[in-house]
Amino acid sequence: MNGTFLQTRKFLNYHPEGRFVDASFFVEKSGIVVAVVPGCSVDGSFISHLGSTFGGPVISKDFYSGSKILEIVKDIDDYIARNFKNVKLKPTSPIFATVPTDLLDYALEHSGFTRHTELSCYTPIAKDVDPLENCKRECRHNFRQSEKLNLTYGEIPDSEMEKFYDLLVMSKARYNTKPVHTLAELQDLKQRFPEEILFRGVWQDGVYLSGMMIFYFRQAKVFHFQYLAPDDSKRETNATTSLFVNAMREAAQAGCEKFSWGISTEDAGAYLNENLYRFKESFGALPCVNARYEKSCS
Question: What pTM was estimated for this model as a whole?
Answer without folding.
Answer: 0.94
